[in-house]
Design a protein that fits this description.
Blueprint (H helix, E strand, L loop, with lengths): L45 H12 L4 E2 L5 E4 L2 H8 L5 E2 L24 H9 L5 H4 L3 H17 L6 H17 L3 H20 L2 H24 L8 H9 L8 H31 L2 H9 L4 H11 L7 E4 L3 E3 L2 E3 L4 E4 L1 H4 L34 H17 L1 E6 L4 E2 L7 E3 L2 E5 L5
Parallel strand pairs: 2-7
Antiparallel strand pairs: 1-2, 3-4, 4-7, 5-6, 8-11, 9-10
Helix pairs in contact: 3-9, 5-6, 5-14, 6-7, 6-10, 7-8, 7-10, 8-10, 9-10, 10-14, 12-14
């Protein structure tokens, strides 16, 4: 476990520091000492012990890692930051570590009002009535993948289910042909694992191909003249033709590329966590097989316990004070959503799985203007994947150690499983 260092005496502040009781003196970025470092060698759940220690001892620490950043760990701080677009921006640095880029990738890299133009085009496509049209395709994918796992000699809940399933679902939403679906799955999964390995050459290669795929998707979908209110490409194209929006054809294609990556990363991470959670709780597995009506409630609690986002960041537009710490203009703040979702001041007995938890206002999908537009789709993906996994197995359990992703996502990279098929399954 990573133990937080005591706050440095060189930390700046204009208010009283709530965890020392002292006024923080003037500070310079060069003199500021690192108070915390993310653990690069996590085990499943170990990060939550680190975050609990931070919330108790130093809830808004400075880390010198990744070029330097603040870490917001409490529910209250993260909620306030995500809802204040006047003070905090995603345009300068929206993730930690900062990813150099030749141009901003919409919509995440834009603040309102430009960001609002993208959401106006994107959000209708993710409404429930549209997303549920793809439920059949989602279920076909889940069944094929679970059946494939049952015949694998060394099945893995991420590599054989969570990663390809996330790509299949987003490919369905985009209305891709089978050949495009196959390639986008292969490139998307390869890109995701290259990010985890920080393999820059593969990342660059895959990123370039993802842009090319986005352009091909854009052109092919427009040739089919889909309904802009129900098709992502058509909705973005219609907005690009409107001179009163910030969207252009180039940025519309870039949006498709960015959403492909987003549509892969978070669903894969949280589905992998759900599989790992259930693989370690056979009683919960048995309950959900006997009472499938409880699965939506169980998913909400697993979303709270295993929120995937922790590198999304905001940058201060001007000097400000957060939790008694002086944050300078242009300093990035990582939003540690997994910590906020286990904040003991917000959730009673926060580390315990509680089915049908009351007032479960978790932040797994973010909050504010940048709240995940695909929350409804994400919940449906989890529901269908877990329904099929539970229905097609008598039981499943861990067959080895869970390997976690690196800092870039919270979730497992590998969940080795032993599966016992249900009656009638291969």
């Amino acid at each position: 476990m990573t133990t937080p260092h005591p706050p440095s005496t060189t930390t700046a502040g204009t208010g009283r520091c709530p965890f020392t009781g002292n006024s923080a003196p003037e500070d310079s970025g060069e003199a500021r000492q690192s108070e915390w470092s993310p653990d690069r060698n996590e085990t499943f759940g170990s990060a939550h012990a680190d975050y609990a220690a931070l919330r108790e001892q130093n809830p808004f620490p400075w880390s010198a890692d990744y070029g330097g950043f603040w870490a917001a760990t409490t529910y209250e701080d993260i909620l306030a930051i995500t809802q204040d677009d006047e003070l905090f921006s995603t345009a300068k640095q929206n993730v930690v570590p900062h990813v150099p880029r030749a141009s901003r990738r919409p919509p995440l890299h834009f603040d309102p009002p430009e960001h609002t133009d993208y959401r106006t085009a994107i959000d209708p496509v993710f409404r429930r009535s549209v997303v549920t049209e793809h439920a059949g395709a989602f279920r076909d994918s889940a069944r094929r993948l679970v059946d494939g796992m049952l015949t694998e000699s060394s099945p893995d809940g991420v590599r054989h289910l969570a990663a390809p399933f996330a790509m299949d679902c987003f490919a369905s939403l985009l209305g891709l042909a089978r050949d495009q679906t196959r390639e986008i799955r292969e490139i998307g999964v390869r890109y995701g694992f290259a990010i985890q390995d920080m393999d820059n050459s593969v990342i660059e290669e895959c990123s370039k191909r993802l842009y090319e795929i986005a352009r091909e998707i854009y052109d092919r979908r427009l040739a089919e003249d889909p309904d802009p209110s129900r098709d992502l490409v058509a909705g973005l194209h219609r907005a690009a033709l409107d001179p009163d929006t910030a969207i252009t054809e180039t940025s519309a294609v870039a949006t498709i590329r960015q959403l492909i990556v987003a549509g892969m990363g978070a669903p894969q991470a949280v589905l992998g966590s759900c599989i790992a959670h259930l693989a370690t709780d056979l009683d919960l597995q048995a309950h959900l097989r006997a009472h499938p009506e409880d699965l939506p409630s169980a998913i909400e609690e697993m979303l709270r316990l295993h929120a995937p986002y922790r590198v999304f960041a905001r940058t201060a537009k001007r000097d400000t004070v957060i939790h008694g710490r002086a944050v300078a203009q242009d300093e990035p703040i990582a939003l540690i959503f997994p910590s906020a979702n286990r904040d003991e001041t917000r959730f009673e007995d926060p580390d315990t799985f509680v089915l049908r938890r009351k007032q479960n206002s978790h932040l797994a999908f973010g909050r504010g203007s940048h709240k995940c537009p695909a929350a409804t789709m994400g919940r449906l993906e989890l529901l269908i994947a877990l329904e099929e996994l539970l229905a097609r197995t008598e039981t499943f359990s861990l067959a080895g150690d869970i390997v976690m992703m690196n800092w870039l996502e919270y979730g497992p990279r590998s969940v080795p499983l032993t599966l016992r098929p249900a009656d009638g399954m291969p």
